[in-house]
Design a protein that fits this description.
It contains five helices and eleven strands; from the N terminus they run βββαββαβαββαββαβ. The protein is of the alpha+beta class. The chain has two domains: 10-137, 2-Layer Sandwich (Ribosomal Protein S5, domain 2), CATH 3.30.230.30; 140-205, Alpha-Beta Plaits. The relative contact order is 0.18.
Length: 209
């Protein structure tokens, strides 16, 4: 089940690591975009890139998490203030991607670029890596338990399939579904189930910690 556009139940990350290189006035900028789930993974990914490019002068980065990217951090890694980390973070925001870190490694070529030139170079390298990355949706869901008799199983399963991102099912004396419903649609889904089965099927919207 896909949801398009500006949706509170959905945001995007990337499927796998992406890398791109940009050369400006003999300086080389290598941008590495890596999907991560939390700050600890982001710092571990940064460490991996630093080890790989151990001879580079700078490994500047930015990361962003969650819907609308409200959790974020950036670093200039000894470049002039505002010339690296923020431009990389701006690229993440421009592409509207979260749950990833972008590290841009710089090899200095002997010609100073100035703060403006650096900002354009760091954001440009990040743009290249993000533009070629394959996007992956992250669905924000709430688990809803649905209990029904075998009499209503066809109707209930059809509705669960139509409205959930994914679901699990168990068949005992009665049938139990755990439907993962977009978070703003859970109450509506429970009402649909109730109406369709004349209140014979029960639902429990599970609270998440």
């Amino acid at each position: 089940m896909e949801y398009e556009g500006n949706n509170p139940n959905l945001y995007y990350t990337i499927k796998a690591q992406s890398r791109a290189e940009l050369k400006i006035k003999r300086s080389k900028f290598v941008a590495t975009a890596i999907p991560v789930n939390n700050k600890e993974e982001a710092m571990a990914a940064l460490g991996t890139v630093r080890t790989e490019f151990h001879d580079a002068r700078h490994n500047c980065f930015a990361y962003r998490f969650g819907n609308q990217g409200l959790e974020f951090r950036s670093s200039d890694d000894r470049e002039p203030s505002g010339s690296a980390g923020k431009p990389i973070l701006f690229s993440l925001s421009k592409f509207d991607l979260s749950d990833l870190i972008v590290v841009v490694t710089r090899y200095f070529g002997g010609i100073k670029l100035g703060v403006g030139g650096l900002a354009r170079a760091y954001s440009g390298a990040a743009d290249l890596a993000l533009a070629q990355a394959i996007k992956r949706p992250v669905h924000l869901t709430v688990p809803v338990k649905v209990f029904c008799t075998y009499e209503d199983v066809n109707v209930v399963k059809k509705l669960v399939t139509e409205h959930s991102i994914s679901f699990e099912e168990n068949y005992f004396d009665s049938v139990e579904y755990t439907a993962h419903i977009p978070k703003t649609e859970a109450d509506k889904f429970a009402k649909i189930i109730s109406i369709a089965t004349n209140a014979r099927a029960g639902t429990v919207i599970q609270k998440q910690s």
